[in-house]
Write a structure and sequence with these properties.
The structure holds 2 protein chains of 2 kinds. By secondary structure, chain A is an all-beta fold. Chain A has no helices and 11 strands. Classes of the chains: A mainly beta, B mainly beta.
Chain lengths: 114, 110
Amino acid sequence: KAGVTQTPRYLIKTRGQQVTLSCSPISGHRSVSWYQQTPGQGLQFLFEYFSETQRNKGNFPGRFSGRQFSNSRSEMNVSTLELGDSALYLCASTLEASSHNEQFFGPGTRLTVL
Amino acid sequence: GQNIDQPTEMTATEGAIVQINCTYQTSGFNGLFWYQQHAGEAPTFLSYNVLDGLEEKGRFSSFLSRSKGYSYLLLKELQMKDSASYLCAVYNANAGKSTFGDGTTLTVKP
């Protein structure tokens, strides 16, 4: 069974631009969570999607948004990029929503904002 | 609120035993995860504790005390490949999410 995939793996943008990141969960998994990982802040929860609905949201500004498609693939979008948005963005899939089951993480997208 | 504390860095010798502690103060608790993350890679699941006590899985064991808000990950017979960051995460069913600590970077030396 293929793992969680994320595209692109690396991205360089400039301030003010917007970016869309993609995540394909493990086949059969219906929940996708997004995290931002930085050296100073660790792994911060962005949001979780299940059955095309956002179920939970972390403490990030409205510039961060996401969606989930009927095939469970998910995208997150960051608009009006700031230097502080430079980070590794990880998505994780689980079988069910808000589950105590282990999360399977993708390799991440490393975003650099110049 | 959620507060999870882990040591930032630890160093140990190959073949030795190391214990990585995690303390938490959270508004809800439904389980605690440990993940391993090698540099430049995604976190991978190590263990999940929901009841008090020790869970052993090969060279790795994880302990939980809910009354003390405390967990540890015990790594035995350390190998060089165990050099990685170890993340403690508390799952809160009411909030529907896991909150992660900042991770402990373990360096195993020959």
